[in-house]
Specification:
The chain contains 13 helices and 22 strands. It is an alpha/beta fold. It folds into two domains: about 1-195 and about 380-435, Ribonuclease Z/Hydroxyacylglutathione hydrolase-like (Metallo-beta-lactamase, Chain A, 4-Layer Sandwich), CATH 3.60.15; about 200-375, Rossmann fold. The protein has a seven-stranded mixed beta sheet with strand order 6-5-4-3-2-1-22. A seven-stranded mixed beta sheet has the order 7-8-9-10-11-20-21, with helices on one face. Strand 20 (about 400-405), helix 13 and strand 21 (about 425) form a beta-alpha-beta unit.
Amino acid sequence: MKISFFGAAEEVGRSCIMITSGKTKILLDAGVKLGDKEEHPLFDDKMLGEIDAIFVSHAHLDHSGYLPHLFSAGYKGKVYATKPTIELINVLLNDYMRLSEPKDVTKEGLARLQKSYNIVEFMEPVKVKDLTVSFTFSGHIIGSGMLTVTDGKQSLIYTGDVNLSKTRLLEGADLKGLKATTIITESTYSGRKDIFPPEGVVVKKMIKSIKDTLTAGGKVIIPSFAVGRAQEVLLLLDDYMNSGAIPKVPIYVDGMINKALRIHRHNVIYCRKELISKILMSDSDPFKSDNFVPVEKKGVREKIVSEDQSSIIVTTSGMLTGGPIMYYLTKMASNSMNKMILVGYQASGTLGRTIQEGAKTVTINHRKVNVQLSIEAYHLSAHADRPQLEKLIKSVEGLKNVYIVHGEKSKTEEFKTDLISHKYNAVLPRLGGEYEL
């Protein structure tokens, strides 16, 4: 087998990897990289006729956002993913098309994409000529999977994005029975110092901070990824509000989060058993809590920012790259009584990273905005930290080769050095590089 890296090599974003065996070629993910400028995989459209299938690990745009471009450029094959992933891709792509307005995407391409989807269940092998591919639950977001690819002689695992910890929504990644000589692993938090504190400690501090701001009369803004982080945050807030740990105020839910919530509810069988039981055995449905106030009209946003009442606003986007958060920041950033809480990874080059690093003046929609509100970050990541990545590596039987992707260069270099010291053949692939197994 041969691996070609069209994205996510020495960077976070635009995941797109081609696996070749004999005359068979498949793509693992097809994402875009969002930031100051949008970047696409270094993929030559002339190869589209050679691609036999595309497998998507999960719905996030850095793994799925390039699909409309590929189909508009002439790809006519199949796309394989789990049922929640396909439904969430449609939600996220609609938002992406509206905000980015990519010029090379056609209505015909989008129509072909809709007809291309093939639902795959976890552990259900899919045969594509010389290759067989199967999904194993990765714990990142609902429907997310690690991909095992084999040609009958050797196997490789592509982690996509992975999380070994149990959350309010999901079980951790399924590591049972993993076998492969090669793994292509994400490395978002692969630095030696990337060791997450226990979630209980983080949540306790975060809830106290939210309570303090609300009690003082301020508003709390929590920008979040529409899929995954937002649902975890909302379930957490609902629990603590119902227990009385934070004041009873409106939790406004804005952006694509509302559609994603409904998709989670419809696909709850992919969530933790405890969550399924809670819905089936009681009148309590955390996806439809009375504490949540959907924001479905633009005029409501003006009311939220101008009213005297304290509130919590959970909105997109998680890295402040677009969406309703831009409106809220413009209107609320200059009030020091307010607070913004960051709960996810802020990629280099994004407004989220700029503000997290202490910028007091930023430009939003060509306007200068003074950042006077408090900025706090609480790590509620859906990615594995360094110890979890090490556990994942050790769990793969027969593993020899480790290709490190989806991480910042300084972190991946540390990870590579330590893996080599443990006798693995660790590689930081080049963007556009090809590697024989």
